[in-house]
Structure formats: structure tokens, C-alpha cells
Fold:
Amino acid sequence: STPCRLEVSQKAQTFPFVLVGSSFVSVCRVAHCLALDAAPYLFQLPLEYQQQKELWSCVGMPDTFKVEDYATVLQTLAKETVGKALSEGQMNLVIGLIAVGLVGVLPEGQQLDSFVAQSVYLPDTHKTLRPLPKLLFDDTPWVPREEGILLCHPRVSRETAIRCGIPTTRHHMLLL
Structure:
């Protein structure tokens, strides 16, 4: 019945409910499909549980994560590393979250919503996560930089930067 489904759904949101590996995780951190290894932040529903479709539907488990889910993980990582350089493992995770998560779930040719972009963090040239609006993509590496300019890490592609709404250094210079 509907009241029972609502009660189960609400209860499942209040504690780690899904067994992934050897740990229970919150249902909001699990989706049916996930194209990258984003543990310990996001998880794919283990194959052995995929048959319980009604249960997962009842608790509101999505098929895939949304842009906002990936943005939340980047925010969490930014809080955990506050101003420090990312480790190689963290950097690989961030690049995956950006390429597969943020840009990967956007419809072809569509840019990241400017409201969402305000809460997204990307790595700078020193592997430090910075708020997206503070970054520029360096498409003029031969031009000397003014002090204080934050540039995207070279592992962030030009296409990714453009789709995330990051202005290029060329565009920035034309506006000056």
C-alpha cells in the first residue's frame, strides 16, 4: 500500500541501508548504474541486489546520479582538503567525477547550469580544488600571467572547461 511504501522510503533515508562491499551506505549514495569508481562517496548497486527492483523503486534509488550529486562530492572533497593539494588518487577521482559525472550526464552541447556551477569545485594548476567561478582555462600559455589568476589543472580538457562555463584566458584578456 502507498502509506507503507512511504514509511519504508522515509525510514530507508534515515540510516545506512544498502550493503556495498563490507559496509552499509545511505541509499542516496547508491545508484543502479555508475560509470566510475567513486568510493567512498558514490556507489553502484551491487549486482546481487539488482533483482529487488520494487524495493529500490520504493526507497527512491535512482538509475544514475545527477549533476548535483557529482557537485556534492566535489564540495565534500573541497571541504576535506581545504586549500591543500589533492593526492594522486583524489586527483584521479576528481577528473573522473568531472569528465564522467558532471560533463558525462549533461545533454550533448549543453553547458552546466550557472546556478549549479556556483557550487562546483575544480582543480587548479596546483591540484587544489577551487570554486569553478574563480578559475580560467589557459588557452594562451605563452602569455605572461598577472598575479592571482587561478588556472584549471591541465588534466581538465578545454571542452570540459567550456561545458562547465569556465572562461578561457583569451576571453578574459578580451574583456579587460
In short: The longest strand covers residues 18-20. The mean pLDDT is 88.
